[in-house]
Amino acid sequence: MFSGEQAGAWVRATAAVIDENAAMLTRLDQAIGDGDHGTNLNRGFKAVLQRLGSAPPGDLGALFKSVSMALIGKVGGAAGPLYGSFYLGMSRTLGDAGEVDDEGLAKALRTGLDAVIARGKAQLEDKTMVDALHPALAALERTLDAGGQLGEALDAAAAAAGDGMRATIPLVARKGRASYLGERSRDHQDPGATSSHLILRTLADVVNGRGDTAPGPGTDGR
Amino acid sequence: MTVGLVVVSHSAGIAAGTVELARQMAGEVRIEAAGGTDDGGIGTDATLIARAIEAADSGQGVLVLVDLGSAVLSARMAIEELISDDHRGRVRIAEAPLVEGAVIGAVQASVGASLDEVEQAACGAATLRKVKG
Question: Does the N-terminal or the C-terminal CB of chain A have fewer CB atoms within 10 Å?
């Protein structure tokens, strides 16, 4: 089961992890983008915390809708509408549920990914967040189908997201600001895939009871 | 009542300046700026764009001019998720250069042209010859 409490903890822990890794994300974005991914996401998740603090939402749908709207209004870069779509997709699938079973969470995450793809029109290997999210969802669903527990499935998802993130390094970007660089976008890790990995790894940490509300600093972006 | 225009840019200054220029040619057309983030930074804000679209729509529809990158994503987000249903069917994003598209689109709108015609005029700005007559 995935409870409302876990969902709230995931969102708060994500805000902390993004804050810790903001400089790293921005550094990645300086190499191949407009150099604001970390700053933008950090501003967005601070707005998320503010919104949740002033009006704690009742059900899972309301929680993720609130996250989505804060990101859409505050991020400023492409990550705003993209992550906004991710959480909005989750929100629509979860509706007024207070908690969901493992498959329910997987379905919500899948809808989130579909919404990201519909919004950004990116395909695999375009060097975007899809390169982390897509293999992660496949690993999550595969593990659950094989009878695995949610914690184990989310660990598999986070590991697959990490592999997908690292696999963006040799790719030439075909979407976003980095695509203007053409060949020069090669040999850099995609910032969006990196933040997507952080978000999913944080979910796995929260569900597996690792860390407090904020898992330790990332080892990504090497 | 004419077709309205919204100018979306990462920079509030570019959006406001483009609107200023277009209004000079077509004072009676509703032209709204949606530039920058709400804290004055560089970026685009779908909620700001949604409000601008609703303000620009007098019932004849709205053409949205965008600069680049996330401006397109934010404008799509605004149209598909944030504006009310009665506006949604008559809003388009122009495949047009920002400044030239806004000015030419505004002029076209000012003579009472339809949304199709305004869009076509704005998109025609992409092949406008400026130097080689």
Answer: C
